[in-house]
């Protein structure tokens, strides 16, 4: 009954927003604003994955309706408070949450944000209508026994009990210090009770405190940003007596934008227990056409845990997308096409188990219907 009410409310809001073609602006004055908006996203998917035990090709549909409630209040001296909430109504019938935060500060100056959000994107992938990777199918979730495409997202957000961030603009210079607080043992969850790491079951966990400073600088058409992320609490996640929460990542990203062309170049490196993960990526977007490539190198060793894996596992992923915008002359209605191809190269020197890192090539294609209101 509760989900039925929520879905009915979402349908009413979407219907009203579509009828006025530009969302619902309830308040819009010099002192502040409050609005209701959002978007609808529906995907038709095809995948041919080596990880499918049945060996069959996969066809499915997924999607969601996102409703955004956003408000800001300004003062005469330039200070503000802001709130945003984005409930997600999934096509499966589940109700989830995207962003939900409270912020305050000085316009075009400093700001403090707390709640649920994503911090600065240190590995932008451009127009990624459909992008997955052989091995790990989520670039912010470590899956034991699968290659990991690390992208500076372990402390970015939406993955713990709480977040708080301080940011400030100094002209072309932008500074950000974000943190995540709470249990992060779910980072290693792979469907088993408690999760595993290098074949070892997680023994215990306690609240982590992760920090993620970012420095970004705009130079004409070019922007560059550098960052790191690490956990400050010892033994936050322990497996077989080893602190596997001891993970430190570093990232560097650059963007060049000129007229209709935008190019991103990314680098990320993670130093973790018994493994190092390095990822690089390049992508471009031009007049609705997006193409990209991501390469990940995973180096494994048997120091803290024996009998796991020793050597390299590499992942290469190509992807492409195209957006048809304003379809049927309806503003903000798009049809997007996307596909990816990814493969794993296993160069391990030794391997005690034969059921890990054995995935080969994956391919996927998607048609997405998208409307923003």
Detailed description of the structure:
There is one protein chain. The chain is mainly β. It has one domain (110-372): Porin (Beta Barrel). Helix content is 5%, strand content 59%. The protein has one helix at 2-20; strands spanning 24-29, 32-49, 58-74, 79-90, 95-106, 110-116, 162-170, 173-182, 196-197, 200-205, 208-219, 222-231, 237-239, 242-243, 248-258, 261-272, 275-286, 289-300, 309-324, 333-351, 361-372. The strands form two sheets. A 16-stranded antiparallel β-barrel has the order 2-3-4-5-6-7-8-11-12-15-16-17-18-19-20-21. The model is unreliable at 4-22 and 135-139 (pLDDT under 50).
Would you spell out the secondary-structure blueprint of this structure?
Elements: H1 2-20, E1 24-29, E2 32-49, E3 58-74, E4 79-90, E5 95-106, E6 110-116, E7 162-170, E8 173-182, E9 196-197, E10 200-205, E11 208-219, E12 222-231, E13 237-239, E14 242-243, E15 248-258, E16 261-272, E17 275-286, E18 289-300, E19 309-324, E20 333-351, E21 361-372
Antiparallel strand pairs: 1-2, 2-3, 2-21, 3-4, 4-5, 5-6, 6-7, 7-8, 8-11, 9-10, 10-13, 11-12, 12-15, 13-14, 15-16, 16-17, 17-18, 18-19, 19-20, 20-21
